[in-house]
Amino acid sequence: MSTQPSQRILFDEPGPRGRRTIALATVAVALLIIALVIVVLAQLDAHDQLEPQKWFFFTQPGFATYMAYGIVGTFRATLVAAVFAFPFGLLLALGRLTRQPLVHAVCVGWVEFFRSIPMLLVVYAFLLALPSYGLNLDIYWKLVIPMILVNSATTAEVFRAGILAVEKGQSEAAQSLGMSARMTMALVVLPQALRLVLPNLLTQLVSLLKDSTLGYVVSYPELMERGRILTSYTHYLLQTYTIVAVIYVLLNFGLTRLAGYLQSRGNRKSAGHRGSRTELAATTMA
Amino acid sequence: MEIIRSNAGVLLDGLTTTILLTVLGYLGALVVGIVVAIFRVSPIAPLRAVGTVYVEFFRNVPLLSLLILVAFGLPDAGLLLPLFWCGVVSLIASGSAFVCESVRSGINTVSLGQSEAARALGMGFGQQLRLVILPQALASMVQPLVNVLIGTLIGSSLCSAIGISEITNVTQQLNIKYAEAVLLFLVSGVAYLVMALGSGALGGVLERRVARSSHQRRQVQA
């Protein structure tokens, strides 16, 4: 029954007595969970939050398309930010790995700066500060440019880890064939590094998707903002925000699972040839 | 500079709120995250299921979406928390999912032979955990756990969007009042930078110390 490695590390295979205890505990916990669900439902019912029209209002065509456009807005922000942030991150990673001191310093500074400050601060800067200096962008870019800036830094670290994870023998071999440093990077190291970081780029996409919720702050019509506007008509706050949260979870869960799948496939392909691959980087919280 | 001096009180209050949110959120996340990690590795199937659902939900939900749900959605169900605690609760929920995964993958780095050897020597569960597994797992958990701390710090800025006056919120308010954008954003940017880099440096020190002490212990035991 113990399939997880961490479980086999911590516990022995249970004996007959252990199995009985586990069975009893399983029943007890299951009952406890059912009781908890009943308490939650009772609490919701006591405040009239379970009425079907409050939960199913969004199945009406008007509301459904309204929310669907929100999801389109979310994708538009996320994907465009990714298209800019990923190559930018790669350049920063390469800049950080060069021996040229000035380029190196600028790239390190950029990465450390944007990794350490919250995106909301950057958004406020674009929203409130820069317009008074004559830089008043379209609302869409007030969301997407901060997304690009902040995520270029985190993506740079993903690429850097990937490049450093390529075996040293590869670049040594390339150089002994007479390739220049640039050719080695472009023809030998990068193609392998890109394959290594592919799963981590997907988790990076999850961070971008999460960051796109700040459209709520700049009033760009993505899912979160659409949810907010909807609640001002319906006043179904709990229901709308729950549904919005669940949609985000499903989207991100799909991306994370895909990343995990690519990761395990990559590990299998290279088993034998390399001991352990880079761990799947954790997504950022915000 | 005059603005900073005359509003030092407000700015300091904002900074204190940010630090409080971060510290309370992180400590809570550590406790809850470890409990959920225990759930996820326990031999009791429904507990494992609860742990998995918990982690997948809170790891994948955007923090802002969670904050808004807690602050503006839950009051409808009779759960009315002060705004500050809405922030703390959301930070705990979100952070604990990441703590849980860091702890779990830390334990997974210990090779199975280590615990089998410990059990073969007749060590109990506590001894096995204290003397064999945790000393080895801890070293690889420090860095991800520090990342959660920095994530909590940066995430705490989103509490600004639900109206908690932490440093980001204060900066934005003062900017509306004085229109001194460059100075104000510089000050709070530097504040975040110092706190994040400080946490990172602290993590580095901690990591070396944990690695050294577990190394020493191994040498003593050898």
From TrEMBL, chain A:
Predominant localisation class: membrane
Annotated membrane topology: Multi-pass membrane protein
Highest taxon, organism lineage: Bacteria
Transmembrane segments: 21-44, 64-95, 102-127, 139-159, 180-198, 236-255
Segments forming domain ABC transmembrane type-1: 71-259
CDD domains: TM_PBP2
Region of interest (Disordered), ranges: 266-286
GO biological process, one term: amino acid transport
Alphabetical keyword list: Amino-acid transport, Cell membrane, Membrane, Transmembrane, Transmembrane helix, Transport
Family: Belongs to the binding-protein-dependent transport system permease family.
UniProt xrefs under PANTHER family: L-CYSTINE TRANSPORT SYSTEM PERMEASE PROTEIN TCYL, MEMBRANE COMPONENT OF AMINO ACID ABC TRANSPORTER
Designated name of the protein: Glutamate transport system permease protein
Organism encoding this protein: Propionibacterium cyclohexanicum
UniProtKB/TrEMBL annotation, chain B:
Entry-linked Pfam families: BPD_transp_1
Membrane topology category: Multi-pass membrane protein
Cellular component GO terms held in the UniProt record: ATP-binding cassette (ABC) transporter complex
UniProt KW keywords: Amino-acid transport, Cell membrane, Membrane, Transmembrane, Transmembrane helix, Transport
Broad class of where this protein is predominantly found: membrane
Subcellular location: Cell membrane
Molecular function terms from GO: transmembrane transporter activity
ABC transmembrane type-1 domain mapped to chain residues: 15-195
Record-annotated membrane-spanning stretches: 19-41, 53-74, 80-100, 145-164, 184-206
BP GO annotations: amino acid transport
Family: Belongs to the binding-protein-dependent transport system permease family. HisMQ subfamily.
Annotated protein name in UniProt: Glutamate transport system permease protein
